[in-house]
Amino acid sequence: MDIKRAKQEIKDAVEAYLLKDAFGEYRIPAARQRPILLMGPPGIGKTQVMEQIAKEMQIGLVSYTITHHTRQSAVGLPFIREKEYGGRTYSVTEYTMSEIIASVYDKIEQTGNREGILFLDEINCVSETLAPAMLQFLQGKTFGTHKLPEGWIIVAAGNPPEYNKSVREFDVVTLDRLKKIDVEADFPVWKEYAYRQGIHQAVISYLDVRRENFCRIENTVDGKRFATARGWEDLSRMIQVYEILGKTADREVVYQYIQHRTIAKDFANYLELYYKYRTDYKTEELLAGRWDSAVIRKIQAAPFDERLSIVSLLNSALGTLFRECFDQDAYVAKLYEYLIYYRDNQSVMMLDDVRALAEKDLEEQRRAEILTKAQEHTMSRVIDALNRFSLEIRGEMFVGDGALDEVKDMFGREREELDRMTEHTSESLDNAFRFLEDAFGESQEMVAFVTELNANSYSVWFINENGNDLYYRHNKGLLFEERHENVVRQMEQAEEMLNSALKS
Length: 504
Prior knowledge:
The chain is of the alpha/beta class.
């Protein structure tokens, strides 16, 4: 199954394991809560999935790469204790608490969450000395003499043997005590994630053309050659920072992340063309509604891969606008919540008190580790706004209803900024549609454009919230599945044209 389905399966299992009856006892006893074993190729996002599940379910997460541990750190150190049995004293070996088990208790103390997930990565690559203890842990949830606290679910991940020669096969006895989930790399699912994470559009559009290069691991006489989802994401971040610094990620930089020479060379060539088209066609001008007949003639005469690159550039620029609107909307909505609280409690508290409350909420949520980065940034913006509002009220010496009216005015300006951003984004989207209509009409390029809009959760949110007549018209009039497959085939046929276009 794909990683998206695997995430839901894990989430469902954790929810079932943590369900309690009327007596406060788990409906599935801890002894019957099978550890979940996630098996799949490296770099497909297993760790990120666990982080997402923990935040979405607001439970704790302790994560370990088990290959970094020795038997001593996992099981604990032995020590001698005197015990009496049947009237005689014996020297007995006991163990200090496992570092892993101790980390779970530390997490409980730190966050206040008494339930959570213990995630053990690379579980089937443990050392020979640690392997028996790890099997015992999976079977009995005990390291040494210390048991995993109730309410904590074991999720382990490993790589199939074809990806790692050092893996150890689990015996039937162990496998019969696990809930095993096999995961495969799936580009369409990763693509949804990529848009949410702001992955560079060049990476997304390239992999849309070369899906076979998304996740490839090959054994050659010169060693392993590979490209993984993790590599593409990390490369994307570096490209984005390089752009800020005015640098270009060339073939050697790409190879540092995509350790497959052929794929690295191919993507570097694509990226160079991507930048060239961005300069030639001035995407910002197109979104502002400024183009002439010369631009239309130029793109109509361009090869298919070039036309699709322009579509990708339009989607990229719009994607930034969609996300900015989403972030502003989240900020305005959260700020409104605190201002409503201020309005309802104005007789007993000042705006500074509300700001202090927001700071307390943020600190508590940080400590509980239940916030995403986006949510944390939103809260920080709200606190800054409340502080700014409070300073202005004190500076102008507003009190009572006058203070409330001033707060309403200041909030109104924040809301106006959201309206301005929304209007600008709507106009940009309309202009993109009109440009593509002028250039191509009802074409494969239009199919590709609308398909990407449908794949981006931020664009879907924006259109659902604000509507767009041109989107509805084109979305309704196209048979996307069939026509998108045709686009992909044409993209593949355009592969040989990339290098020649680069040389011209």
